[in-house]
Write a structure and sequence with these properties.
Elements lengths: L2 H13 L16 H17 L6 H10 L7 H11 L6 H11 L4 H15 L7 H14 L3 H12 L5 H6 L7 H15 L14 H34 L1
Helix pairs in contact: 1-2, 1-4, 2-4, 2-5, 2-6, 3-6, 5-7, 6-7, 10-11
Length: 236
């Protein structure tokens, strides 16, 4: 039985009339197909969060989950079933959280994918933001960590770089460098496979790595500029 066939089977279990996802610490192992089915369901329900599933959101989903031609129809039906309502999305978030409970970096990758879908139509609605916030809470992220994730996808004001790097503005240069190295190591695209996520997340990882590098470069430039101004004033 192929991997995608196992996903269809897992989907039937998730969406059957008497189905109940394996959640809340109940016994039972979530296999890779069951996890993928839950992740696809979570993505579809996010697309529905603002009431309308757009073509851009569907295309964004497909850019993350590339499937063989013979599995396209089955995945499309699965996605259509899941997107009918946002009800129960917390259950699927818990399945994903359990799968990666010991690997928070992988859960961050999932959040990146969800932000990618939510922003595909160019608008992040209040219901979508609430969906993302609740999912982040289920994944165990703090408000500060969620704000950092949000900033890495949406941008913010002048203090963006610090938020993206997850540090305070008064951090020392030495600790700033350490924080940057931690972020770069945790989010390097080469680590995706080790974290168990599909190769299709490569593009998202490259984007996030660019955001981290850009944030660090911006902070260094701002600090160097500020230091230069101080020196000139002292000479005067």
């Amino acid at each position: 039985m192929s991997f995608w066939t196992r996903i269809f089977s897992a989907a039937a279990g998730l969406f059957g009339p008497a189905a109940r996802p394996d959640i809340d610490g109940q016994p039972g192992r979530i296999d890779d197909a069951g996890f993928a089915a839950a992740l696809i369901a979570l993505s579809a329900k996010l697309a529905k969060a603002d009431g309308v599933v757009t073509r851009e959101e569907i295309d964004a989903f497909r850019s993350i989950f590339t499937v063989p031609p013979d599995a396209q129809d089955g995945i499309a039906r699965f996605f259509d079933l899941a997107k009918q309502t946002t009800a129960g999305f917390e259950s699927y978030a818990k399945i994903v959280a359990r799968k990666f409970r010991a690997r928070p970096a992988a859960l961050e990758d999932v959040m990146d994918g969800l932000f990618h879908i939510a922003l595909a139509d160019g608008v992040l609605s209040a219901p979508e933001m609430e969906f993302l916030q609740k999912t982040s809470d289920i994944f165990g992220f703090s408000d500060r960590e969620f704000n950092r994730l949000k900033a890495s996808h949406m941008g913010r004001a002048a203090d963006d770089p610090y938020l993206i790097l997850g540090v305070d503005e008064d951090i020392s240069d030495v600790d700033l460098k350490r924080a940057y190295r931690r972020q770069a190591a945790a989010n390097h695209p080469d680590r995706l496979m080790a974290r168990g996520l599909p190769e299709q997340f490569q593009g998202l990882a490259n984007h996030k790595m660019a955001m981290i590098n850009g944030a660090y470069a911006q902070v260094l430039a701002e600090r160097q500029a500020a230091s230069g101004i101080v020196v000139k004033r002292r000479r005067n």
